[in-house]
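As a warm-up, study this chain.
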Amino acid sequence: MKARFTLFRRAGIYYSQDTVNGKQQSLRTKDESEALTLLHSKNEAHRQSGLNLQIARTYLTATDPEIAKRTWLIAMQEMTKTKTGSTLSRYERAMEDKAFLLIRDLAILETNGAHFLKVLEAGGVATNVFLRRLHNFALDMNWLPWPVLPKKRWPAVRFKEKRAITCAEHQAVINRERNPELRDLYALLWHTGGSQSDIAALDTDNIDWERRIISYGRRKTGSISHLCFGNEAEAILRRCPSTGPLFPKIGLWHEKHRAKEFKRRCVGLGIHGVTLHSYRYAWAERALKAGYPERFAQEALGHNSKAVHRAYARKAQVVVPTLEDYEKRFLPLRIRSRFGRKFRKN
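Now compare it with the structure written out below.
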């Protein structure tokens, strides 16, 4: 059988050349015997690829007896177990994707790039996102000794366009809504930027009237959000029950039911491209336009990273003042503040 790879030397360095496609690769050595050994290994690997894979499986089985039998279904189940709350429900739904039927019973060690490409072709955006997470989970658990697809070979994730709800659209929804609880919920979302599940589940115990703060633990991340409210938000809160849940009826609804009700209202008004989550985008964009400090906005929205917050506010149209106007408006304030501190120290 003719050898697949041949040896040649250029500028003292030995190279191998593939006789099928002509590809050349440096062996990174000037020693002829070492180069011949490497070339022999490459040819043997090509001639006995099936045997080499079986040898690799034997070595891996010695360290993990279950590795040869572990399927992607087991990986899906184990990855889902690490989630809680609404994230758990989201992962459970994602793992039921019909596209995953193509690999669900396939042994992880027997998976190649063609298998993943078929799954990605059969699925959509969510399939791409969760297959990446499943792949990375298997790698982290050492159930997969090498990547099935290199990072550069994964199709780009193209999400649908997301946008903030505008003030005019929000007012239209408020004016049309006849359910007082829903109307107050939408108004409170506009003023706080909270997620619909967190705000709908608020209790009177979450409100500090003296300091005018709403504090709660986010269901999604577990992080603590502190929302300061003004006069308009206070008026909404005063209309809610004085004890117990602020939204006793709609707080018991599943989030998808609140989302459907909001969508129905928007469709009736001819508003498209927004969801209840758009209120968070709107709050972040309004904060950026107003010059609200980023660390305050992160604290209010419960974001753990600046990157997430910047993604929410990326479409905000900020009007940059001229240096002349900025100096006239803000410089005197900074000077008074600075000298005021000096005088207080003296």
